[in-house]
Amino acid sequence: MTAAAKTGFMDPITLAECTMAIAVLCEKAIAAGRTVRKILASKLSRRERELLIAAAEDGVFFVVKSDLYGVHVASSSRQFAEQDPSITAHYLDAFTSICARGLIVPQGNRRFRLTGQGFDLARGLKEKAERQVE
Length: 134
Hints:
By secondary structure, the chain is of the alpha+beta class. The protein has one domain. It is 53% helix and 18% strand. The chain is built from six helices and five strands; from the N terminus they run H-H-H-H-E-E-E-H-E-E-H. It has a five-stranded antiparallel β-sheet. A hairpin with a 3-residue loop joins strand 1 and strand 2. The radius of gyration is 16 Å and the shape is globular.
């Protein structure tokens, strides 16, 4: 018997359902023809910038689920999950937001990749962050 069954609570959304919902959001944003001008017109949150910078090199994101963190986002270089579930939730919110901006395209099997405009923006943010450190 699973822990959810023992407590009487069921996981309200499966990883597949969550991933599919995010993929649909990404596809709708791409179809709507978002442009970089529109994207830059609305300010990116700190967490949106962190996600984009983390994926600037290869553009890859995964939506994953673990017993410890639940559903969360990961790039090739970082897991966006924390002990505090509210922080993990904020990163997932930021990920869905950049999907809605048309910066990410689903590639199937929980894998997502930056669009061309997403790469341009992510690499620009990364270069700016590196210049500020120098």
